[in-house]
Fold these 4 entries.
Entry 1:
Amino acid sequence: MRTAYIDGMPREQLTAYVLGGGGVLGSSEVGMVRALAEAGLRPDLVLGTSIGALNGAFIAADPGVEGAERLAAVWEAVLLEGVFLDNPMRQAARVARYRTHLLSNAPLRHVLRRYLPVARFEDLEVSFQCVAACIEDASGRWFTAGDLADPVVASCSVPGLFPAVRIEGRHYLDGGLVHSIPVGRALALGATRIFVLQVGRVEQPLSPPTRPWEVATVAFEIARRHRFVHEMESVPDDVELHVLPSGATSSPNISIGHARASRMRERMDAARAATAAYLAALA
């Protein structure tokens, strides 16, 4: 039995939840979280990137059923706060003024400060880490301590949609640029059982582009997925790995059109049912 380490303490078994990116499609992860909690599962470690950082922070604050239900309520707040949507006139004015992004990250900060029950990594019930991409040196930085808001917002800052976040003199963008689904991080930290929470994109193969605008989206999706594919191929045989099903019929590369309450709820419900069935089959 290999030994895993978390917070410097050795453990023979370490269960990690790995939450990938996907913008508004991240509502699928909420359904998976609820199914996991209802099945009595609990993580020792939570790793998140992009929207998975937001979801992951709430899971780490309360990994039980009540916490899962709170996260579902937070997604309702995401809609009300306009985190992913904004008045078109405001968008145009913001681009004219800042030239780099369409949306403010203020609503996302507000959601975190209002609904997340703790403010620091150290106060979470379960160990949590999130990643963001550093502009200055093109590296991925894992945040593990201190204030939660800036790292989580940075990890969610999709280029062109949100502004970069300045932390300790450097600027950070979406963690999905460097780790779309950070299975490798879980392995590096000694996880012996990994549950991958993803938005459904990796369940469907890519197709060659047939229209000019598809070239960029397909290229970006290859860049986003290739590290995950490599890390999945290198998972040791003694690690128990579960890629949870999304239950979604489609998971588009450009997902802003799914930022509607009805579509988010549909994805939550589908992922909850599909994951519950998957977990029941393991028993």
Entry 2:
Amino acid sequence: MLRISEYIRKSLKGERVKPFNGVILIWNITNVCNLFCQHCYSASNSVRTGELSIEEIKKQIPYLKKADVRYIIISGGEPLLRDDLFDIAKLFKENGFITTLSTNGTFIDESNIKQIKEYFSYVGISIDGDEDTHDRFRGMKGAFKKSINAIRLVKDIGIKVGMRFTITSQTYKSIPFIFKLAEDEKVNKLYFSHLVYSGRGKNLTQTDKEIYRNLVKQIIEKAFEYVEKGINIDIVSGNNEADAVLLYQTFKEKYPEKANILYENLKVWGGNQAGVRIVDIDYRGYVKPDTYFPLKLGNIREKNFYDIWNSNGILTELRKHPRKIKGKCGECSYIEICNGNSRSRAYAFYGDYFMEDPECYI
């Protein structure tokens, strides 16, 4: 995840960023969902078979701490479809984890908003465009209105809230609308996720490379505008670390005298963190380097999280910096910034975890 606004802001002030040494865990506590989103990496459905119990989750708490997990993002499926969601969130909070909620927002209402405030420090809600685009992409009429209502409820009760938008050939024309919506709703964060070919997302495509690059340029330019005008919406992107290179190139054009500060900050950030500072546990207990990885490292029902997270194999290769990537990524002078980008996308395209990222637009 590239915190574009923060890196612009700090670099303009001449501030150095500090490396984050802990681990961020995305825990997909269920695969059940009420929507049928075209890009869903977990291909969520109505099946609960194999879902971890709260007792099984609780057993892993000491091992998560030992592995230096500090942040837990509860996701799904749709996590609010688990009856014991708040018991799970309470368990994490009582054990000192900073816990956030990733949701489609359709189940947030007056009956649960106070519990959400009690247990979550941040809520991310998916919006994929205007009402027609969103409802079509999510497979449910009325989903947009429910999600917008959720954003307002979360914001009004005093929880930090962000909108998540996935860039695909079906949604990219909605980006100007998304910026206007974020400004009107005064959200805290706007997160742009790049498409990774996983789950139902395998059936989607990204747009032409030149259009794609221009889209990211548009996002980065908007981040500069927000910083320069003091608009308090943080722009963040994820799943295509080439964004950091384009950020650097744009920053260098605008503020050449401070570009070296940004470059050094981006080196500290370190690019793609799958298997390094990012890990995923799916609803059946399988541990993966990130949510999109087809490769399973092990299952917490058979082996504790700490031992899985400290095993050899692909994790050793993922933790090399810069990674040893084949193709154009291996020859790129910016690899120390992006760290080779998405290994999941490389595997989906080439069948090789260490080939170049096919969606690098640099």
Entry 3:
Amino acid sequence: MAPSDPSPTGLRFAVSVDVRRDQQPLHDTRIDAHVRVKATGTGPRDRRPATEAAVVLALDVAPACRRDAAAALAAALRALPDGLSFAVLGGAGDDGPGRCYPLRGPWALADTDEKRRAAFSVGRVAPTPRDRPPPGYGAWLTAARALLGQRPLPVRHLILITDGGGHDPEGEAHLMAEIAASEGAFSADVLALGADWDPLPLIALTEGLHGTADTAPDRFAPAVTGALRRLRRVLSPELPVTVTGRPAVTGVALSERQPRQHALVPATAPEDPRRYDFATHQWEPGTRDYLLTVRADASADPLGVLLQLATVSVGDATAPLLVRWLPPGVAVGAGGTGGGGGTLDAMNAATRMRTALDRGYAALDPLSREEAERHFGLAVRLAHEIGAAWVLADVRKVADIVDGARGLVRVGPTVDLGTVREGRLHVASGHRLDLPAHAAGTPAKCPGCRHLAGPRARYCIACGRPL
């Protein structure tokens, strides 16, 4: 890995790239690589001070659940960290979600007296009248954005506690528009109560706003405390992963594979079209894994030597993407793995496993037994291959595993839809897989322009000088 110096984010980064070095020299060669980024805290504290965070707590529950939910919210408020800026939304106002606390002004600052008053005030949360349609998740985002726009702190966050009562099936377009409008303004977590909610809008909301969606018990105060603890571990709310290619590179794509699975959107500048910046969010100490796909034109490159096609940078850490174009008649893999790519198969298998598991759940609602068994069977077989025990535990909640190694699964005549919906959130919330470590290597610098190069690179990516 290529380590960095301590950065202003309070994190030190190390980046490594694992790729099959031997590639066919085609006009449009596709190269897949496994990028691993490890972030390590550099400061004396392992979490951000509560005074740097503003949090909106939104309670969205049906009338029948209001009393118990208000009691749980009161317990959560009493456990807030001192110094936190907070506001509480709940029930219905004249033009959307109602304001519950503070009673005057948009924000409260947590201390012993303020938390006590807030806990007492949640009894004022009024349910949405039965003759009025639910506000929709988009309305909660609108209200949170209006509040958080008045509190310019480094971390701004929404915790939406919902039993699905606030979801308006006709308001999907409004929800997607609000997610787009809120992206970059604040992040969001969702705690789902009961089992009568639709997982898809909750997943869309938290993926778009870089948070997590998870189930919670009726007494959800510990879940709120845990969400705030995770939030305070975020030392850098946003950070780009930068891929810089040489002129032969014709396209770059990057997708996160762990801890979550989603594609990233590149940004390029006209003055530097070979630089691709991929925005990433919610950085805390830990490891992330990405799939980097590069397309390159090898028609003018030399054969049989290591070339640096691109560099991957996070913070002050950089690692090279090195390949070797094979001479004519030599097949890829003829001599082994080509000096890299050992973790790529495991990461791709994990991606296929998650996708199959999610499709299996989708086939259960509504019930399509044969399709669900096919997808669950693939997920179970891959889980056996790469050691993902959590997949086997999840599948056993909705089906019998007849032969895990062969991927034989049997779904019964009925399934609990609440368990199915919890399973879909479980897949989206992210579960780590222990992948092998990348081979170590020390990057070099070009003696001419001082640009970083791989330990075995023959030519500089920046100036073309032999190394």
Entry 4:
Amino acid sequence: MELTSNSDKITRDYFDSLLVETRYLDAVLPSTQLTLFGETFRTPIMTAALSHLQNTANDGMTIYAQAAAMSGAVHWVGMGSDEELEAIVATGARTIKIIKPHADNREVLRKIEHAVKTGCIAVGMDIDHAFNSEGGYDNIFGLPMKAKTTEELKDFVQAAGVPFIVKGVLSPHDTEKCLKAGCAGIVVSHHHGIIQYAVPPLMALPDILSITGRSIPVFVDCGIESGMDAYKCLALGATAVSVGRHLMPLLKNGAEAVAGRIDEMTAELAGVMARTGVGALDRMDPTIIHRRTF
């Protein structure tokens, strides 16, 4: 395996090192139905919390949301204006809003309140955008960021009144703190290689699940490009997965093209489930997965 500091390539290599055994006897036609926060979705393949998609396609953010609604998928959204979020939710997509770790907690609380009033099914924070690559606090489009404490997370959880999710968890250390703060879910992610040599999210997943005990949903983000990738995450214990950059080139072709790829990936997932004897998402079995040693 080629040595590299590129976290995205390390993540891809890890996905490709995982092999799947087949289980045909007594297998049944599978269901990809996901139940999350009291709602039912057709697929565990969700959109990722992207931002600024107008650089990819006109009205890219709403196109992205429309695609999720068409596919019966959970939709995530990142940084953006209040008006943009309102337009996204108006598409009918069941949306989770991820908020940056703004230095001013009043802005965080304002965005939480707006997201809840707009109709988001959950809100959360993107904790891995607190620092820049030079050891200082990050600044995104002129907006100052700052690392948050566990106590501050508790305040955000209490203020939300809907499930609060932390994105950017890649260690048991942060997992324990999220549980202490009362978070309702975490996203295992290195934010598209925000740090070199990052542990692949799928490699970190088992240790993280040993902390959560499946008491909260655990989602996997970064590098997912197929139904097989999604299957490997789900088999190892993820509740659902997020797909972002893989879908972005399709935005210029409209919501139908993006929804079509989500549907294709869901069908790919169902195909692997059928051939491995997994009839439903809650019947996933990690012993199906093997790490290549040759």
